Fold:
Amino acid sequence: MINAMSLQSGESVLDCTMGLGTDAIVASFISGVNGRVTGLESSVLISTLVRYGVSTYPETEEDVALSMRRIEVVNVDHKEYLASLSPCSYDVIYFDPMFRNPGYYSPAINAMRFLANPKPVDLQTIDLALRVAAKKVVMKERRGNTEFKRLGFRTVLGGKYAPVVYGVIDLQGAK
Ligand SMILES: C[S@@+](CC[C@H](N)C(=O)[O-])C[C@H]1O[C@@H](n2cnc3c(N)ncnc32)[C@H](O)[C@@H]1O
Structure:
């Protein structure tokens, strides 16, 4: 994920599908004290749970604990939020929607599957993300899915045998 984002210390990430926050915490760890990570989650229950989690989880590794504490959690639909932002507000816009064909079951996601928003990302949302991102729009999906093609992600990165891969739209040089 970090390679797909080309994420550097000091950069900003808008995680449009925060879920339980694993990816947002990794992004926050890499972007560091001078970076910024905002996590959007449309489910009231999941966003309440994850906001409480990132602000209180008794993590003993101080760097990881501070990475959690820095994340801002917003309970909102990502389309509405993206529409409210100015152009180039974040370096990276990230999507990890519920998989269209969930053949890969993560125990953490399974526990909250019935609460999660199952809607696919639509093209209008990707257009909004392309306006708000300064550097890249990145989406996680199962290998072999048709979502990347539908949404215009032409570059797909990931390990040869990895069950999940990352679609990338690179805006550097385009803005
Ligand atoms: C697969 S999970 C994300 C897992 C997350 N990347 C992690 O590391 O834990 C997808 C999450 O995105 C949320 N979601 C789906 N559509 C959304 C939308 N339009 N706006 C905000 N959140 C959304 C779902 O409710 C779900 O919690």
